[in-house]
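User: Please predict structures.

Assistant: First:
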Amino acid sequence: ATEYADHLEDYYDLGEEVIVFDDADDLAEKIKSLLDNSERRDAIAMAGYERTKREHSYEARFEPLIEQARTNRALRPDPAQGIDVETFERIARSHRPHILLFLLKYMLLMPCVLIWGKERGPRAARRFLFEFSWRYLGKKTYSATGWPGRIFYKQS
């Protein structure tokens, strides 16, 4: 559940993919209702997760921007007028996860999948890593170099 934000309905089906609340009493009521109806709760969680994965992942959001950059590069091949593609590629490579991050991901995934199953386990591992990182690294967690986003890139 989340508080309502302007235009949230443009991104999610309210009540079907995300639950919104008005105040603390409304939140408590909705939590109780969702705890009493696990099928509905799971259906909403899965629908919201699928919508996020499909439309709000980094890949989905950045693909149009990257395509526009490619188009602009083709229109302006002079590097002085556009981006330095080699520098961009070098920086992009430095943000890709390396073998230690893959090992960390699977070390987190294994117990979470054993405890919460194949659907909830990966989300629990991702959430755990974001929480842990936020507590110890603060705002760097949500930077381009933050481990959680690099490790769980496809799920973000």
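Second:
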Amino acid sequence: MKVLFVCSGNRGVSPIVKAQADSLIQIGISVDIFPIIGRGMLGYLKAIPKLNKHVIDTAPDIVHAHYSLCGIVSALSTRRTIVTSLMGSDVIQSGAMRWIIRFFIKHRWIKTIVKSTDMKERIDVTQLVVLPNGVNFELFKPLSKIDCKHKIGWDANRRQILFAADPNRTEKNYPLAKQACALCKVPDIELKVVHGIPQSDLPFYLNAADAVLLPSLWEGSPNIVKEAMACNVPLIATDVGDVRMLFGTIEGYYIAGQTAESLCSSMTELLEDTVVPNGRDRLKELKIDSVSIAEELNSIYLGLRD
């Protein structure tokens, strides 16, 4: 089977999209990636002629678009079978854009995938499949905290809280992370902001961290949560996306309110706790490894060809 991924290429192909492509290739599917370079609706619409030519030249069985704008452009470029994955921010669209997304879900995209039940409820359209992104267990695994701190140059005598996102992205809520850490009275605590690094380096930062902090305003199925859990690293997160489902009742994972006081309280409790969390086994139980998700996605593709 030949699948064409259509995604944004403004900052290069997203590691999330690349990881899903790699997982499909691992189970024997041919995956090509077409990155769209352009800003806003007009910028994306300008890509239609190039995408149309690429589809004609490569003749994929399935066109799988990632994010709503890519799905819209794909539907306007070809009559081939189109699957669209909505990734998180799509669900907060309002006004005309929300109407357009719902139109394409009902009438143009053969299958629409969302990353969490929360996303499905927010969009409130029945023709949706919930399928989160999987995590690569070979890349994200427990490593020595001391060795990782040394490797990336963090002070082993301090306690680092990792904020692994672009602080300029509104939904990631970096100001709240700063406020919470400033309130926290745990000695030698420091907030570390990490983003834009190679995916292959991220496991070292996760394993070096004493905790990961996710104070987001909204999410779909946040990959950093699953990646940290695969490394058995503790987390504090707001109740967004599928975080509560991912955490289950496993110790070392805290749901906090969207206030600095609540996040600080959870952070203090976590850092005083001596339990070693076992998020990795929780993800195995949920079958959210990259291969299991790739096989589910392949089943969706095959169902569309029958």
